[in-house]
Amino acid sequence: MICRFISSRTTGCDLLVNCVHISVGLCYGAGVLTVDSLRGAAGESVTFTTSVQPPANPFLALTWSFNGTINVITSTSVDVVGQGYENRITVDKSTGSLVLRNLTEKDSGEYELLLISQGAEQLHGAAKLEVHTKVTKPTMACPTENLIEGKTSVNLTCNAHGFVSTRVWMKDGKPLVPGNGYSFHDGNRVLSISPVSRMDTGEFLCNVSNDVSFDTTKCALTVYYGPDKPVIVQRPIEAELEGSVTLFCSAHSLPRATFFWRFKHMWMYGSMHYIHQMQEMHLGRYICTARNAITGLEASAFHTLRGI
């Protein structure tokens, strides 16, 4: 039978291409297996698939081995299954393909296939298997104390069991990067926010993954802030004596601020101060103060009421 050879720069070996007669112990590679490496998840299964076409006559012998010395299965006139592989394997004896079930991390290693035809011709293949434990659903404890803008710092810790190759923190659908108060520690397991700002209000996600699994957890933060400096609006802008006028006071704050006014020796409460009929005695400087009950902060602004 005629075979074509190509030279491999990486191994220095001549590799067989489009040839079914592959000798054991020559150049190493996937051979009759369709891939030279596989990844699997613990508890699941993988299939070592071959490119072999079923022969007219059954193979004289079929052998799968693990790490060069451990018998997985040897099939001649009878099947000899290796210890620990009982009820875990299925072999297609016409192609040599192998299904390995109930994977554990101990199954990681090198698997070799040898097929011997009725004419004593040999087909060989090898592949490496990596078995990873699936990551468990991560856990993250959200802070229970009130988070105050500019004052509070917080650490979010993302814990997960199993082999975690990647941890990605996200907010508002975008990955977080160091800076703007964010820093990462312990292999991205801990996200530190110092100090928190109002922009940190929202849902933080921690995504964990490896080659065979992915899961996520989330934590919603509420950052209390303010009040910012109040804004006072007069309606109408040009108020006439004997006419009515309203002063409106507002301020950005979470939770919503409460308001009170000071005018001369008087105190008025609420965000709006209404004067039904403006007199000379109503003219002057009005001070609006906003207060946030959680942050404990106050902010004030003034407005001078003039009549025309």
Structure write-up:
- This protein is mostly beta strands and 308 residues long.
- The radius of gyration is 37 Å and the shape is rod-shaped.
- Helix content is 0%, strand content 45%.
- The strands form eight sheets. Strands 3-11-10-5-6-7 form a six-stranded mixed beta sheet, with no helix packed on it.
- The protein folds into three domains: 4-132, Immunoglobulins (Immunoglobulin-like), CATH 2.60.40.10; 147-224, Immunoglobulin-like (Sandwich), CATH 2.60.40.10; 231-305, Sandwich (Immunoglobulin-like).
- The protein has strands spanning 4-7, 14-17, 37-41, 46-48, 61-66, 70-75, 79-81, 89-91, 98-100, 109-116, 122-132, 147-148, 154-157, 166-171, 174-175, 182-185, 190-193, 202-210, 213-221, 223-224, 231-235, 245-250, 258-263, 266-269, 272-275, 284-291, 298-305.
- The protein has no helices and 27 strands.
Overall pLDDT confidence:
89
The major beta sheet can be summarized as:
6 strands, mixed
CATH architecture of the largest domain: Sandwich
SS content category: mainly beta
Set out the fold topology:
Blueprint: E1 4-7, E2 14-17, E3 37-41, E4 46-48, E5 61-66, E6 70-75, E7 79-81, E8 89-91, E9 98-100, E10 109-116, E11 122-132, E12 147-148, E13 154-157, E14 166-171, E15 174-175, E16 182-185, E17 190-193, E18 202-210, E19 213-221, E20 223-224, E21 231-235, E22 245-250, E23 258-263, E24 266-269, E25 272-275, E26 284-291, E27 298-305
Parallel strand pairs: 3-11, 12-20
Antiparallel strand pairs: 1-2, 4-9, 5-6, 5-10, 6-7, 8-9, 10-11, 13-17, 14-15, 14-18, 16-17, 18-19, 21-22, 22-25, 23-24, 23-26, 26-27
